[in-house]
Every structure is written in C-alpha cells, then in structure tokens.
Fold:
Amino acid sequence: MESVIIAAGSNLGDRHSMLKNAGTFLETISEAPVQKSSIWESEPVGPSKYTFLNAAAKITTDAEPLELLFALKEFEQKMGRKKDSPRWSPRILDLDIIAFGRLVIHGESLIIPHPEYSRRRFVLMPMLEITQNWYDPDTQKSLQESLKNAPDMRIDKTNLSW
Structure:
C-alpha cells in the first residue's frame, strides 16, 4: 500500500460539483479514508481566462502508478474532459498524481513527483494542509521550502468543502 497525493482542479462548468464528484471517486478507489484539503480558488496559469477551484487529497492504494493514472484519466473523461485538450486550456476536471509514496519516476507517460508541483501555489497550499512533513524524494525539498520559492499568484481559501 502506498500513500498518494492527488491534486484536483476545475475551471469550467460547476467547478464545485466537479471537485465533489472527484472526492467521491477518490473515496471509492482508496483503501483507507481519504484526507482532503480545503478548496482554494486561484488565478489560472497560462492563457486560460477562468479561475480554478483547486484541492489536494491523500489516498492509499495498492494500484501501480500507471494503473492509477489510467483510472484518474478515465474518470476525468467520464466527467466530460476532452481526451486531448491542449496544454493550459480550460478544463472541467484535472486530476494529477503529485506524489506516489517515495517513488521517483521519469517515464514517458508519467513523471513523479509531478514536474510542475513546486511552482504551483494552488498545489502546494492544499498539500500543506494534508501532509505538512512531506518532502520531495527527488530534490529533498520540503513543501515549505517549495512554497517559499514558488511564483506569487492570487490564491484564496474558500468555505467550500468536497
């Protein structure tokens, strides 16, 4: 069994509903109770014009990393995400594996830890709520150190729950 951090985000349609659906899905695939962060609202990265709702969850799984990735992508599509959406485009739901136990993977279809997480306050701040002592198994940096060095952006904690 491995502890896995998953980032969730939505900036199209009923964003809150999408995160609630994602939370329910994660509960069905986790072998232990899911730890969920607060929901945060952030400005988009890249050319997208719509603000995101973001959160992070910690699940426990005995799935292999690629098996979990496939399940997450399949769920995104079930919720309405287009399979080959351009990078930085608006998305109805985005589920990313940020960390998978202490694994470091540099594969063609999967990189763990996620290559962008340390520059994304909308990933770091929710992650910090559910796993304060985590550090990157590749760089050895703590979440606090990554957050201190991450580019500034507008991000606000909401009163929403998922």
Observations:
- The domain at 2-157 is CATH 3.30.70.560 (Alpha-Beta Plaits).
- The chain has a mean pLDDT of 94.
